[in-house]
Write a structure and sequence with these properties.
heterodimer; A: about 575 residues; alpha/beta; FAD/NAD(P)-binding domain; seven-stranded mixed sheet; four-stranded antiparallel sheet; 12 helices; about 15% strand; globular; B: about 190 residues; mainly alpha; 2 domains; about 65% helix
């Protein structure tokens, strides 16, 4: 018989996952005086050692190509050598499957801080109509913007978000740090947008333009995606987990892959069973309550794998909604070269990584467009640190060699701009995940099988993105660097924007939802979910800020219910 | 800089990183230069290519991007050849093809033995896709790789950063945009 090592201690709460949701939960719960254990499937993060923030390419023999030149042969399973240690598209020994006819890729992080170590830090509030859709094409959330607004205030006030008050319904204002001034190409894009009647406003990003909560202000090196050693860019590891460890009330258990939530006869979670990856042994940590925040799809997988006579379809899954309602953002990108920028005098354009201004959705309620929901636009450009592949376009376009090629590269360095659309996918019946009946991972944990399909709502949106991006580029006198494409091929592959949401959705009706408005399971009062799994829909506003806000609210509610003896 | 000083500086950087403090940009700059200097001073010994292949690569590199050999582009390519067989095949195969072609056309032992005008005549054929033909395609394919890799190797070196004018990777207390590039772009912009 398998020997299971049980913790002698009963923690008030076990939190599973250390990203934006789990990090926020451990901060709030330890602040409230609770004893918390945090399970993370990957190793501890050591920013000073793990982040390559200021490393220059020639300090590494392969210059960023990977130890076996993987980059040149499309064999990378990561975002690139320089990026923060973060996660992978494929993890040896931890497969997932995709149903025939579907395409889906699943990015998984395995490290303290999860995806927050590298993400773009775009921090956008959902709008009133995102929570209560007026078109009836997706279900309403069990909360309103008015209810969530104070939690967004807390989230922004704590993690630190740049921005300006704009009074737009599509991009509600928040508690903002000063914005970063626009770069030259961004000023040009703002001019084009003004002519086209499109708003282009200061970015809302979780980067500190002033010191906050012991974290230093940004030093504008532009390498946020590599991980910020000082912690000026928000990462749950640095902003929440590390400070919570200092409280003495947090026990972090790394390399712990959660297998199952153990429930008693009364239907309450009493322990979390996990694999200690270092020793390949089976362990249990006992608790009074659990917060699951392993990322949208991992959280669904854990619930579905927690079967018992009382919960034959997985814990808290009487509604059969766990795994359903999966969405990712609609992604589409287009670039162009702007002759006005050719040969521009050089300046240090690093700033904060990514854009200093962005385009929020601007056509809400417009009756002429042929798709229902909206998108926002992220901008790129500037004099980036040269890296492998930076001048592939010039090599390919001009060919040749010698001083002529060198001159072209000098002239066109920094003269290209790029646009990425991030749009709302409407939940559909073709898109969901379930437990694969045949495949298990290296520890014997059944894996997920994905089903994914876009609809015309998304394809038509991609066409509109293409027209918009082209019109901005052309207004600036630029040339689009690629032919217009068929939206069916140009749309991002499901999962690749890494904004999965919705697999453990919240709602007022236990028959059609798993969680109540506080992210508490209808059927299991001491089970909460605090990543993007509870989200009812996928608004055109990146999910991280909302994960922090919802996790904060769920954690405060849990602490209060425990204090009252209700959990 | 002495080995001792350099070691002390690296210890300093490691300590600064472990304690989570930020390195003054000037000090970081100093260390980057020290590393580059150490690399540049030692003559690179090829790990994957033969002496002849490496000499050919160095020569080709200089023609593709003047200054790239001293900036370490050939060493970068040879290093990748030593850790990736697919890369090695591209370069040993390409150099072999080039030598064979030069021998055939000009009765020389190899590319480096030909006269400069013979070398450029050959490269002018394989540097452009428009010249695609069954005879030249292996050379065009190779030259695309060689150009791409030399450009990558050069522009990810200190010399390449300087050539293209990259001014970032600094620690700043605030971000601002100078007037000169802004006025330059605004004057040329149609809106």
């Amino acid at each position: 018989m398998l020997q299971i090592i049980r913790s002698p201690q009963v923690f008030d709460v076990v939190v599973i996952g250390s990203g934006a949701g789990g990090g926020t939960a451990v901060k709030v719960l330890t602040d409230r005086g609770l004893n918390v254990a945090l399970l993370e499937a990957g190793p501890m993060l050591h920013p000073g050692k793990d982040f390559k923030e200021h490393v220059l390419p020639w300090e590494v023999d392969h210059r960023g190509a990977g130890a076996h030149a993987e980059m040149y042969f499309g064999r990378t399973h990561w975002f690139g050598y320089w990026q923060a240690p973060n996660g992978f598209w494929e993890i040896p020994g931890e497969p997932y499957t995709v149903a025939p006819g579907s395409q889906f890729r699943w990015f998984r992080s395995r490290i303290v801080g999860g995806r927050t170590n590298h993400y773009g830090r775009i921090s956008l509030r959902f709008a009133d109509y995102d929570f209560q859709p007026e078109d009836g094409l997706s279900d309403p959330w069990p909360v309103t913007y008015e209810e969530m607004s104070p939690w967004y205030d807390k989230a922004e006030g704590f993690i630190g978000v740049t921005g300006t008050k704009e009074g737009l319904r599509t991009a509600p204002d928040g508690v903002f740090l000063p914005p970063v001034p626009p770069r030259v190409h961004e000023i040009l894009i703002q001019r084009a947008c003004k002519k086209l009647n499109i708003p282009c406003i200061p970015s809302r990003k979780a980067m500190l333009t002033k010191p906050l909560n012991g974290r230093p202000a940004c030093h504008y090196c532009g390498q946020c995606g590599r991980g910020c050693i000082g912690g000026s860019a928000y990462s749950s590891a640095q902003a929440q987990v590390f400070p919570a460890m200092k409280s003495g009330r947090l026990t972090v258990i790394t390399n712990a892959m959660a297998r199952e939530l153990i429930a008693n006869d009364a239907g309450k979670v009493t322990a979390v069973s996990y694999v200690d990856k270092a020793t390949r042994s089976e362990k249990q940590v006992r608790c009074k309550a659990v917060v699951v925040a392993g990322s949208t799809c991992e959280s669904a997988r854990l619930l579905l794998n927690s079967k018992s006579p009382r919960f034959p379809g997985g814990i808290a899954n009487g509604s059969d909604m766990v795994g359903r309602n999966l969405t990712d953002s609609v992604g589409y990108a287009l670039g162009g070269r702007i002759p006005a920028l050719d040969g521009m005098p050089r300046y240090n354009s690093d700033g904060i990584e990514g854009m200093h201004v962005y385009i929020p959705w601007w056509l809400y309620g417009d009756k002429h467009k042929n798709f229902p929901r909206g998108y926002h636009i992220e901008l790129g450009g500037g004099f980036h640190m040269p890296e492998l592949g930076s001048f592939r376009g010039q090599c390919s376009h001009y060919e040749g060699y010698g001083q002529k090629l060198k001159d072209k590269i000098y002239e066109e360095y920094g003269a290209s701009i790029g646009f990425s659309g991030r749009g709302e996918m409407i939940p559909n019946k073709k898109t969901w995940c379930e437990i694969d009946p045949q495949v298990v991972d290296q520890w014997g944990i059944p894996v997920l099988r994905f089903h994914f399909g876009w609809s015309d709502a998304e394809y038509n949106m991609v066409r509109h993105m293409e027209e918009t991006f082209s019109s901005i580029i052309e207004t600036l006198g630029g040339r689009v660097t690629r032919d217009l494409a068929d939206p069916h091929r140009a749309i991002s592959e499901g999962g690749t924007i890494i904004h999965e949401a919705g697999t453990v959705r919240m709602g007022n009706d236990p028959k059609t939802s798993v969680l109540n408005k506080y992210c508490q399971a209808h059927e299991v009062k001491n089970l909460f979910v605090a990543d993007a799994a509870p989200f009812v829909s996928q608004p055109d506003k990146n999910v991280t800020l909302s994960i922090v806000a919802f996790s904060w609210r769920a954690s405060e509610y849990l602490a209060e219910e425990m204090r009252k003896g209700n959990v | 800089m002495s080995e001792q000083t350099r070691r002390e500086m690296f210890c300093g950087i490691a300590a600064a990183m472990l304690s989570g403090t930020l390195l003054p940009a000037q000090q970081a700059e100093h260390i980057h230069h020290a590393v580059a200097e150490a690399r540049a001073n030692g003559k690179y010994a090829p790990k994957a290519l033969t002496a002849h292949e490496y000499a050919t690569l160095e020569h080709l590199s200089e023609i593709i991007i003047p200054g790239s050999a001293a900036a370490g582009a050939p060493a970068f390519i040879d290093f990748l050849c030593s850790v990736c067989d697919d890369m090695k095949d591209i370069f040993t195969g390409g150099i072999g093809w080039l030598d064979e072609q030069m021998g055939h056309r000009y009765q020389v032992a190899g590319f480096v033995d030909a006269r400069p005008e013979q070398q450029t005549a050959m490269l002018d054929l394989i540097a452009y896709r428009k010249n695609a033909s069954p005879e030249l395609n292996p050379g065009i394919h190779f030259f695309d790789w060689a150009r791409r890799m030399v450009v990558d190797g050069y522009y990810t070196s200190a010399a390449g950063f300087k050539e293209v004018g990259y001014m970032g990777n600094q620690g700043l207390s605030h971000f601002s945009v100078p007037q000169e590039p802004l006025q330059y772009a605004l004057k040329r912009c149609p809106v």
